[in-house]
Amino acid sequence: MFYWIRVGEEGDYQAVDDIAAVVETLNSWRIGEVTGWVAGGIGIGLETTECHGYDFVSLFWGDDEANVIRSLNGWERAAVETGLVECLV
């Protein structure tokens, strides 16, 4: 099982093994800081200063084929929120 990440509707899902790799990947994409969490409707993940609405960041725990198993729990969300850096344009 993996954490699966995708930005927007057009991107491809990327699998990562642990929450530190999630934060590292998101920071490399310069998505900015978390402004809210998405849980249903358009998907599961988070919104940031740079990625919001239908271009939110999909982020969930899933199986080998990116089928959702669960959303992030409290400590995983906290790790993402504290680990993301501000995107200075």
Mean pLDDT, all residues: 91
Work out the helicity level.
Answer: 10-25%
Computed CA radius of gyration, to the nearest angstrom: 12 Å
Please tally the helical runs, counting DSSP H or I stretches of 4 or more residues: 2
- Class from helix and strand fractions: alpha+beta
Q: Give the uncertain stretches in residue-range form.
A: none
Which word captures the global form? globular
Distance N to C terminus: 35 Å
Which band does the percent of strand residues land in? 25-35%
Helix-strand sequence: EEHEEEEH
Largest sheet: 6 strands, antiparallel
The counted number of beta strands is 6
Which helices and strands occur, and which strands form pairs?
Layout: E1 2-7, E2 14-16, H1 19-28, E3 34-40, E4 43-48, E5 57-62, E6 68-70, H2 74-83
Antiparallel strand pairs: 1-2, 1-5, 3-4, 4-5, 5-6
Helix pairs in contact: 1-2
